[in-house]
Structure formats: C-alpha cells, structure tokens
Amino acid sequence: MKRFLGIIVINLFLFAFTLNSQQSFVIATATQNVHYKFQRWKTSKDFPEEYIAEYKKQGFFVTSLQNYNNFWTVVISKTSVIKEQLVVRSNDFPDEYINGRIYQGWSINSICYSNKEWFVVMDLRRFSRKEEQEYYYGLRYPKEEIKKANEKGYYVSKLQYNNGYWIALFSRDSDAKREKFSQEVLTIRSFDDVSLKTYLNGGWHISDMTFKDGIVVLLTDGLNWGRQDNRIVLYSNMSEVISNWWNYKYSITNLITIYDVILNVSSADNSEYVNKFFLLSEKPTGEDDARFIEFIEDNKDTEVGFRGLQKLAGVSINDKKWDKGIAVYEKYRSKFPSFKDKIDKIVAILKADAEGVKIENLGENINSEYNDYFPIITLEGKRLYFCSFNREDGYGGEDIYYSDEKNGVWQKAVNIGMQINTGSHEAPLGISADNLELTVFGNYSESFGNGDIFYYKKMGDNWSERKHYDEPINSPYFDSDVCFSSDGNAIFFVSDRPYDGDYDEKDNFSKGIWGGNLDIYVTVKTDSGWSDAINLGKTINTRYIDRSPFLHPDGKTLYFSSSGHTGLGGLDVFKSTRLSQTSWTEWSEPVNLGKEINTYDNDWGYKISLDGNFAYFSAFNNEDTTKKQDIFKIRLPKKARPDMVATIKGRVVDAEGKPLSAKIKWENLSTGEAMGELNSDPIDGSFFVVLPIGKKYGYYAEKEGYYPVSKNIDLTRNIDTMLTLYEDVVLLPIKQIKEKNISIRINNLFFDFNSSELLSESYPELNRLIKFLEENPDVRLEISGYTDDIGSERYNKKLSIERAKAVMNYLVSKGINQKLLTAKGYGKSNPVSQNQTDDGRALNRRVEIKIIDSKK
Known about the structure:
It contains 14 helices and 54 strands. It is α+β, with helices and mostly antiparallel strands. The strands form 15 sheets. Strands 19, 20, 21, 22 and 23 form a 5-stranded antiparallel beta sheet that branches. The longest helix has 21 residues, at 793-813. It folds into 5 domains: 17-269, no CATH class; 290-351; 359-640, TolB, C-terminal domain (Neuraminidase); 644-732, Immunoglobulin-like (Sandwich); 740-856, CATH 3.30.1330.60.
C-alpha cells in the first residue's frame, strides 16, 4: 500500500555482477519513511553481543538481525518506537520465557538459531498498541502455519531460515482496526525475477528476506510501507551503497550477508530512471552545479531534462533573485525547443511584481523535532489538525495531532488519541464545516484499494468508531486528499482510478516524479446519498498529478496542486474559478500562484484561511539542519486571494439557555433554493455559517419537536471586508407553544414599503409554516400584524391587518383550512423594541403567529 506521503511503492535499481564462490555479498532492502532516525550495521562470525550492548547505551536498538551459515548481520537504529530491548540466549527454545514477556507487554523482534543456540530479541514499545503474536520454529517450511495464521488475521512479520531451522513470526492488532493485507512467499535467484517484478510493480513490498537455495522473499500488499530499493551488492561496496541510501532518507529494513554462493544478477530495466530520480531529488549547489548542467545537456528537450532545468533555475528563484532565474531559463532555452511555451509562461511568472509576502513557522507548540505536515484548519480558524511522524508520544507511524488557537497563540499540540490513531499510519484529510466530521487516510480491513478515505463523527468530547466511505468516494484504487465544501453539499477528493481522458500510467517515472496520474473528483449530496464521482475535467486535471483540492468557502475559488500545468517546480499551486453554479466541470484557466508561493520543489496541501489572507502548508525547513518538515503560514499575494465572504456565528439554545444540537440550514430567498446545511455543536450549541457574497439569504435552526426559528441577511450589496454577524437562536418546544399559546415571530416575511403584497422572498418561510400546520392539524392559529410608530394609528392598523391577511391568504391558497386561521392587525401597539432607531423600528414591523386553540 502507498504510505500517505509517499506516492507509490516501487522497485528502484540494482547492481549487475556475477559472484564467484570466493566472494561474499549482501542482499539488502531499504525503505523510505520508516521510523528510524540513525542507523549502524555490522557483520561478524560471532554473535555481536558487545556491539549491540555498546550502542544500546547511545539509544540504538536492533531492528534487523539475520544469520546465514553461522554468519551474523545486524542493523541497529535509533527509533522512537522502542522503549526497551533485551536479548535472550538459550540452548533450548525459551518458550516459557517468551510467553511470560509477551504477557507483560513485550513483543518479539527477531529469532535466530546458530551453533546450537537460540537468540531472541524482544521489544517493549513506547506505544500502547495492542498486538498479538504467535511463532513457529521447526525443520520444515511452515506453509500450513502461514496459511492458517493469515486466515486468522495474522500477518507474517518475520520469516527466516537459520542453520536448518525455519522460523516464522505472526502478528496482528488485537483491536478492531486491523489493516487489510495479502502475503506471498517467492524463492528467486535475482531481483530481476519476473514474478517478483510483477508483485513489486503492483504495489507490493518486501517485508522480510532469508536465504535457502535462493533468496526467499516475503511479500506483503498493505501494512503501510514506503518506497523501497532492493539490491544484491558486493560486500566490499556495501558501505557506499548504504551511505547513499541514508542521504536519500532510506533506512535499512533487511540485510543478509551471504558467502560461498554463486548468483547471476542482471541489471534492472529502470536503473537509468533511478539515477535520474536520485539526482532530481537533490538540491543544486548553485547555478554552476556541474552535475545538473551535464544532466540538462544529456537530457535536453525532454520532460526529465526540463525538470533538471527547473531545479537549476530554482536556486536563484528560492533566493528571490528573479532576474538570475530568468537568465538560467534564457541560457538553456535553445536546448528545449519543444518547451518554448512553458519557458515563456515561467518567465512571465518571474517578471510579475512581487508583494514581499511573509512566511511564518507556526512554532514549537506545533512543530517538533520530527516531520510535521498536512495541516487541516477548521473553518473559523480556531483548531489545526495535522500529521506527525513517529513522535515519542504517538502510537507509531503517522499520527494525527491538533492544536487550538487562544488569544492569537497556537497551544501545545495534543495527540488526538487512540480512538483514531493506531500503531499504523493515520493522516488527516479534511474537516467538515461544522467540525463534526474528520476524514482520515488509511488502509484497513474495510479498504477497497491501496489507501482509502475514512471518517469519524464527533460525539461530544469523543469520536465515533471509524467509518468507511462507500463508492463512489472510495474505489479499488488510491483515494485521498479530501475537501468539504463549506455548505456541506460537496466532497472533493483525488484518485488514480482510470478515467476516459489521457493520463499517465500508474508507477510511471515522468517529469522527474514517480507516480503517474492523480485526478481531482467531486461528489454531490443528493436525497439518496452521494452522487457518482465527477471528474473536474481537462481544464483542471492533466495527464499527470493533480491533487490537494481546496474549495474556498466563497463557493467558487478552487486551489489545487499540479505537475501537469506549467509551473516553477514539480507540483505548483494553482487557482481556478468555477464558472457555473450548475456545473462542476466548467472552470477558468488555472492561474499559477506565483514566484512567492511556488518553489522548484513539490508544493501541495495548501489550505486557505476564511478571510483569504493566509495559507497554511508544510515544507522542509531550510533553516533546520535535520531537513525535517514543518508547518508554515504565509500571507497570500492579493491576486491569489478568493472573494470575500460573510459569516454568522452564534449558539442554539432553549428558553433556559441550555445548548441544543440542531440543524442550521440556509437558502436563497430569491429562488427558494436550499443552499447549505450543518449541525450546531452538541456540547455548547455553537454554529458557524459561511455565506458567499451576492445573494439574499434566509437561515434557520430546526430540531425535531421544536418550532424552527429563522433570520435573514442581505449580501447583494458591495462588501470589501469580511462581514461577521453574531446571532443566538432560541428554540421553543412545540408542545410548550401549544400549551401556553406563545406568540412566535415569523422573521423572513417581506413586503414593499407601505404595501401588503407579499414578496416572493417570503415563500420559503411560509412553506415551513404550512408544513407545521399539516403536521399539527389540531391547532387554530392567530396571525398578528404589527407596525412601527411612523404614520397615523389608523393607517398602521389598516396596514398591519392587511399584511396579516396576506399571510393567511397564502396559507389558504396552499390548502390550509381557512376556518383554522384568524388574521388580526395591532398597528403600532405592543412594540418589542424602541422606535427611536432604524433597527428598533425594523424589529417592531413584524408578523407573529399564536396558537389560540388545540387539542392539548
């Protein structure tokens, strides 16, 4: 399965040579994005007990232990996962000791047999992951044991052959959050084996290796591994190879030293691409970096060569030396005749005026000594969710953390807890507008494919059990990168599922990136659920990678990242505008956010603040020598900002001020069209609604057993700053209204000045009143009209009763029995506010309803 940060697990490149019987060599696997900070390795004829003990004092633990023909190979690593470790040696297999330690919470790391002695390494982990383990040792290959273990949900975590003994270790999570996996075992003579390549190209990974009449490879599909490199290397060359791995953030996950064996190993087909990949993973030392200059010359007028040119020019661009960056493109323009239009667009981006935007690291309360990335900010900007990799207070792998903003300061980040985090990998994808639904990337037993979208519902202070989106959101392919529309009517996501358009093949190496195609999709809420997935179309999606969609709450400005649209780096951030409110495939031509946002690297995962002034993102911290990822905040250039919005913030309470969980809905009063829906917080009754500028809205709170209360806001006028209203809503039980004949104000009724003719904007409100009367046929209703104190008493009395009759006539026209309705006008009497201000007079001009009789 693909880890969240890695795009695809792939087989990289291999060395080619023939080993004779006098040579020793190493069979090795290295993996990216595992939880090892530093590593050492050693081979010896004797068990390296002193070596292990010495480095244990420095915080290193055994992470790989292999024995072939009584020859030891050990890898030790610094890791936040292991708290304590012990090594047991015994002439007899130490069953009783192992089981006693497992009962105490320890787990088996490795088991080996050499010179008639058993060696068992056991770990005590920092995280409270509930793991069950079983093991096998014997003279025969454990075919049936593996099959039975898999059927019970155990995966083979270790498979070794030591001096005549087969050893297998089976593990599984004991809770319900078990990951989906499949396993196979192959015996091969080289990594060029066709069957092995088929598995690796299909996204499987090598989780263990041993040697018996060939290389015995344990393959797993699932369980969250990163990109891998598998090699057979002469022992004399291994130090150089391992150092190169470490430079590119690969960690050794398996190492076997073999001698007195002949293996014929041919080169892998993709070694040429991997050499290019490694160079393009590096940062040029300057514009005169000979490696990149040679690379550009050797790959001129190709996509991968152009990626090298981007990185060479990017040295100056990242230092804000725009003219020097332009000069690099002009210098090599003749080498890339097929890229003329792209170079012209890039030069135009670099020539555009700069605003001097400021980038701010969010600080140590959020960022740690580990990798912190993929920020998700709530709509009102008061809580930040993000992903952190292998923090010491985590549960293993990628965990979700959150921080709350108080008085302008982000508080110390907190692990979201075991309700969501497991010993596997979890990463936040999106949060709904009402903050009550959190989407998470994972690969569990419910998954359809290589990474799916899951969600959790907020339940007071806790979260629900994990839930899995059905199709069309999830598919048998990779699905990720969720964005909720602020009205709750749409979910954006990305997928590498096949599409009718032209797209890059999965696992392909192109434009300097391993990956293939990712497209952005949207699904729309319907009465029966979510609609079929809609591809946003060729204006947005290219044949390459398009991901991390973010639709701003203005309802039309889409931000996303793409490697297919012309930009300064691998993935650049773009902005596009939705052209039609009835279509999800009509968009303006994407605009690059410019040289102050984009770099020569991969820029993605941008989340825009509600006011449109800032973006949150993660990037490698250039000022940090550990080269880790941090979360940043950047002020957006004005041309990159969305339209203004208005917000309504308040609480839904009952008559005693107790919070209520209610639905908040809003509608276009001009058309009666329902526009959006969310829920108030069940703990404090709070709600937060965002409305795009340009319409007159009605909004109301409703809860079963209570009469809905409505308000309205006119956003058709020009607004140049973000408008925020604070409005609490008091709901009364229908039973109480009936029993006490309580008058209820009908807010969203509209008349022209000095007129009793109902305007069409009144119909949505009156239709809710009709629904109430149909559901309560036992009530008789008085409709009461009131005015302010401007004008004569006689005139106000006449106008108030005419408006009350207009409401009654509308109800009758829709089938309500007129005998149940009475219209009365009270003029300027019974004011609910002072008449000395416009706002006060507006409150006094009203229509109320009162139940005057019912079968209680």
